[in-house]
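Q: What does the assembled structure look like for these inputs?
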Amino acid sequence: MSSVNTEIEENINLPEAKVESPWKDAWRRLKKNKMAMIGLVIMVAVVIVAVFAPFIAPHDPFYSPVMEDGRTELSLIGPTWNYPFGTDRLGRDLFSRVVYGTRISLMVGIITQMIALSIGIPLGALAGYYGGWVDEIISYLINVFLAFPFILFAIAIMSVFQDPGIDKVFIALGIISWPGLARIVRGQVMALKEEEYIEAAKSLGANDARIIFLHVIPNCLAPIIVTVTLGVAGAILAEAGLSFLGLGAQPPTPSWGLMLSTGRAYLRSNPYMMWFPGLAIMITILGLNLFGDGLRDVLDPKMKD
Amino acid sequence: MSEKILEVNNLKTHFFINKGVVKAVDGVSFSINKGETLGIVGESGSGKSVTSSSVMRLIPTPPGKIVDGEILFKGENILNKSMDEFRKIRGNEIAMIFQEPMTSLNPVYTIGDQIAEAIQLHQGLDKKEALKKAVGMLEKVGIPAPEDRVHEHPHQLSGGMRQRVMIAMALSCNPELLIADEPTTALDVTIQAQILELMRELRDEFNTAIMLITHDLGVIAEVADKVAVMYGGRVVEQTDVKTLFKNPKHPYTAGLINSIPTLEGDSGRLEPIEGNVPDPFSFPEGCKFANRCPFATDECMTKEPQLEKAEKGHDVRCHRWENLDLKK
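A:
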């Protein structure tokens, strides 16, 4: 056997230097994509703002001098050094509220996507792996869910709850977000289950659960990551929409959508009340979408250069 | 008489698809003894891969179904076992290596993880011990620097190395039967020779029985003890490897042997077998090989021959074997 070894040793050293792990390779190509990197910088900034909100916000976002001390001179002042985004009618600092609003928006994005993942991945994987009647039932369900317009469906679910609130928004948006994810996972699993390494895993004696969760799903992480990134953006927008309509976060929660809604009454006299929450939404969504698109370009094997 | 590890009796695996029934394997019987290598040869579409998948119970159902026959592994019919029971045998006592080393390893795991998985599944070792054993297996299959290689991903290895990893995986639980489905087809000739040498060494070391599926008679000549030649879902000739090459009795076997290039050949032309394997939906009524057979008679066209005993340990499925002299 030793002679065999020496022969093969010469063969193997060649390709080694060039090869890198697929994730490293993806990162290298992502770095070249300017738009994606802008998106990434925005996302990191948004996350930093959310995490360090108490240190960044100069005022308590809930403190209303009008209601508590009767100091009405602090209500509705335009942007100044002390109140960079101005104050609302209750005298609350809008900058601090926008900063804390980052937390609400990110929470909405992450929690709804977690709900969507925990429903969408198992259902999509079952449908794709087993096919047949299992697939028919799950696909039917997916199609029914996808048949409703997103925001109308969200309104319908929110109206079921007696008292709307941000926690109900998580549930409603989670319920609406899973079908898209499930459909993507289903397609991926269908393609991947025909791979030889899946047959090889079977031949080693692995059972179905092990094959689905340890062999198939790790191989479709790339499209899942892309979908979830774009899904976070969708959820943030939907929450803003619901809160704007009064069906989402309730006062005094510092939700961007809710702030837009309150600001609407002052659109002529104090337009800055809508500028800043609106800008915050726009920048966050822009960042997520730029990054998500970049990821898609990098992770989609068909788009490789 | 040594112990029979695997005995397949009258196996029929059919595929039920919209166009009709494909009788991919139709009444195949053979047996393998401990430490013995059985080669199964045939063209594409002869049913050899379906036979091996049937033994592993990897036939996609539907559309495939084992409609008849029994597969006795150490005397027990594995077709009667539940899937949960069979999973304890699969990968543990019967293991398989696949044709495509490039795609048979999961790209997201290191090769160590993948070898360790089989060990963990069947031997109840923890991850650390399993990995240690994986390093030992890699060393056995001749992978240099196994302590480093064990942490590498499949894309970092060449085809020959990956096939070694597959073999390490398959042998990690010391199976009594190894099914190798065209293990060298995707490799170039020098690597092929190394892999065959490796399989031979490991067979001698572990006394593993091997069922070797191939279309390459050269591979058969190198490693097999016994050979079953398949055509149209049936065994047409079955004997030990020496007799097969020296004294083939079935015209198909003779045709296969004649289509191998030799160094001494003076004609300069190969003699291919004319035509192709018939469409599985319209197998001829009589002998399935009759339409390509140079010796076919009217009887061959209408009546299917049975597998007959030509000599001791030499079975042939041909009406005319007694009248033909196919020796070279």
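Chain B has a mean pLDDT of 83.
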